[in-house]
TrEMBL record:
One of its GO terms (biological process) is phosphorelay signal transduction system. Pfam families: GGDEF_2, HTH_18, Response_reg. GO terms for molecular function: DNA-binding transcription factor activity; sequence-specific DNA binding. InterPro entries: CdaR_GGDEF, CheY-like_superfamily, Homeodomain-like_sf, HTH_AraC, HTH_AraC-typ_CS, Sig_transdc_resp-reg_receiver, Tscrpt_reg_AraC-type_HTH. The modification 4-aspartylphosphate is found at D54. Keywords: DNA-binding, Phosphoprotein, Transcription, Transcription regulation. This is AraC family transcriptional regulator. The keyword Signal does not apply. The keyword Transcription regulation applies. Residues 3-119 form the Response regulatory domain. Coiled coil: none annotated. It comes from Rossellomorea marisflavi. Residues 402-500 form the HTH araC/xylS-type domain.
Amino acid sequence: MIKLLIVDDEPMEREGMQLILEKHFPDLVIQQAKNGRVAVDMAATFSPDLVLMDIKMPGMNGLEAIEAITAEQPHIKFIMVTAYDTFSYMKAAIKLGAKDYILKPSKAAEIVATIGKVLGEIEAERSRHVASLDQQEKWERARMLVETDVVTQLLFDHVHDVHVDLLMEMLDVPAEGDLFVMVLLLSESGDGHYSEIRQAIRQRGWTGALYGRQLPLIVFRETGTTYRSQATALARELLSLGAEQDWFIGIGNVCSSLDDVRRSYQEAMLATVDTQGRKRYRFFEEIPLKPETREQAMTDQKELMENIRLGQWDRVHTQVTNAITTLEKEGTPIIYSQQRILQVLWMTSRVLSESGIDTQEPLFSVQPTDYRTLRKEAERLLDEMKEAYRTHFSHTEADTFQQIKQYIQDHSHEDMSLDTLAQTVHLSPIYISKMFKEKQGMNYIDFLTECRMDKAKGLMKNPEKSIKEISYEVGYHDPNYFSKVFKKMTKHSPKEYRRSLLGQHV
């Protein structure tokens, strides 16, 4: 409801104005002030949207009252009500932001028309403001999804139906410069703090998706402070959000580009292996191993992930058992070893999840107190994940990939996201992504884009078709976006390509 304040030192004038307004604008909330000073005080508490301000009043006049009110609440609108139809008064009022004026006396119709016009402006501004807030809220939700998707694509092999570089253009944070990864291990109830964590990271980096207890964070380096100082301060800030909970943070080394960020993630993961130290966070370089041993651990981790993706379960089993044997020979405390092996099993489960294979979070059924029990529990969990892998892929026909490719070629002009394609062919979107990377050497979206560009090239042979028509015909709703993608794929704009194709100006 719109609130209106009538300011006049004449009670009869105030009452008469209120009667007119209540008759023609029954939804208004109206209050009265008997002079300029009272109006200033009332504006602070009533916060009107519109003020009908008399100019000549004892003490503080109307112009002085407008100036005082506007200094505190610049959004309030004013209509001057005065018997003084002089240029100097109107010029001063307009300079202070008055929208219009009403002369005393005026006919009711004139009063209603003048005030109605300003009330219409207020309602229009409110509608625009509500629409703006709605758009901001929608964009913020979309931005959160984009941010999570970027982290997923950078750190894992999970591929979505939008290029990561195009997603990056949607984010208003720097995509270049030094960065590092932090992995936050939450407690069982820690996911309730996800929004707080995201808010703490906002403007300083990107938050990934929570998987089990692991939450990856990509953090951008700040100028004017050292990497360790920045990481330490941020780790303490994040840990304070779960002060009463058993959280731990692993911190990877700084890398100079997004292409290298996966290594920092793997380092951060290794830094979370032993959570029993005095501090609740650890840098990769602080892992109690020799530098060459840490480097070998990184190599082993990368090899393990590749073996899991390829389904080389004998090699996976050998790597895990060899790791346990090495830890035992080195006299590593069992508490550290079980944490290290559990971390490896978590990683295995996540790689399977990225491939579209559903597995339960790997947890020991009993707490290993010796290496024999640790081996037995690790083998049990690996066998369960191996069986899930075998079951999943046994349902896939040998020619499924060719069928999928043909379907995309036939329907590339339609709105076809990776999820909708997956529903159509009854396969996991992540599994489809994996097949394209392994069998085609490209991402799903690259193949879909190639199909669309091939069709567009064929349509460009027809000079009667406009670029706009072609963009719609091959599956793009925005001709500008089509042109951008076409140039990215062919190194030429659609007009340049057509000009070259037809040998003439188009």
